[in-house]
Each structure stands twice: as C-alpha cells, then as structure tokens.
Amino acid sequence: VEGLHGVNYLDQQKNRTRFTDHDKAITFNSQLDRLYLNTPNKIVVHKEGQIDAVVWNPWEKKVSDLGVEDYSRFVAVESAAVHKIIQMSVVTSS
To answer: Where are the domains of the chain?
Structure first.
C-alpha cells in the first residue's frame, strides 16, 4: 500500500496510540490494524502472488464495523485465485 507516507495514524493494537507512518510503502508480515487520519485522495494498493483480485462493498447490508451510511464509502480489495484454481495437498500428522 502506497500513499500514506507522512500520514498520522492510530494503532488499534496499541490502544489507539498516535504514530506517523515513515515507510514509503506498507507491507504485511504480521497483523496490522491502523486508522489513518486525514488521508490523501489517492492510495495505491499493489498485489502479488495471486493473478485475480476481489473488490467488494456490502452496500446496505449491515456490517458491524460500519455506521448506518458508511457503506457508501467502504471498499475492500483482496488478492485472490478465482479464475485458475490452486490445488492444495492435504498433509496429515501422525
């Protein structure tokens, strides 16, 4: 994720302690839960690994984390494998 360099955020995992993002890009190697404040209009999401993407919005369906009218400003983007199915093997332990 790019476009949040220099933006302040509240870290949900640290009791909403306020920090400033100093990284050029946000990458994920552990759980991340941040509320970015006064964000720019353009945020870029890069994906890797899967060839497809899922973009969704719940619209008027109730989502516990969203307020009554928040659905109109909500979007989720996920990397996915939809078109070409990935075969996985089952490993059992003894």
So the answer is: 1-39, 47-84
